[in-house]
Amino acid sequence: MTRPVKKKADKPRCGLCGKTKNLTKTECCGNWICDDEDRYVPFSFSRKSCSRNHRRYTLCGYHFNEGHEGDWKTCEQCRTDFEPEMVAWYGTNEYNFEKMPDPPTYEPTRCSKCKVVIKLATDSYSRSGDEYRCRNCTENEM
Ligand SMILES: [Zn+2]
Ligand SMILES: [Zn+2]
Ligand SMILES: [Zn+2]
Ligand SMILES: [Zn+2]
């Protein structure tokens, strides 16, 4: 990555949200990130903690926690540990500093009952074996 170097830009910033206060470096990749792990803000589910999101919802964090060898972007183990859809999401979502250059392609996951597309990363669903049920169908069955 090459970036134009600005003279005043030596202040560390969170690589995810750009904040400059309370920063720490990620253990997994050494990037500056908000040191906000223990702060839970209700109603801000999607971005409550930069460091937590990076650690829990990216392959970078997973790869590090699992003690895999080498670079997460080329790690075979990471790619086989999740469905391709989740590998693609974990590798390219907004909690990454660097995105996976070649995320796997996948067929959309569909509810086995009503055939609606289920986004595994963000929708709620239930699963038994190879069958996925969307939230509606799950609730209707109960
Ligand atoms: Zn941040
Ligand atoms: Zn990382
Ligand atoms: Zn890995
Ligand atoms: Zn359904």
Description:
It is a single chain. This protein is α+β, with helices and mostly antiparallel strands. It has a domain at 109-141. 26% of the residues lie in helices and 13% in strands. It has five helices and six strands. It has helices at residues 50-57, 59-65, 76-81, 84-92, 135-141, and strands at 23-25, 32-34, 109-110, 117-118, 125-128, 131-134. The strands form three sheets. A two-stranded antiparallel ribbon has the order 1-2. Strand 5 (125-128) and strand 6 (131-134) form a beta hairpin. Helix 1 crosses helix 2. The mean pLDDT is 90. The protein binds zinc ion (4 copies). Residues 14, 16-17, 19, 33-34, 50 line the site of one zinc ion (ZN).
Q: How many helical stretches?
A: 5
Strand content: 5-15%
* CA radius of gyration: 18 Å
* Distinct compounds present: zinc ion
What characterizes the major β-sheet? 2 strands, antiparallel
Helix percent reads 25-40%
Q: On the 0-100 scale, what is the average pLDDT?
A: 90
Q: Which regions are unreliable across 5 or more consecutive residues at pLDDT < 50?
A: none
One letter per element, helices H and strands E, the order comes to EEHHHHEEEEH
Distance between the termini: 51 Å
| Structural class label | alpha+beta
Strand count: 6
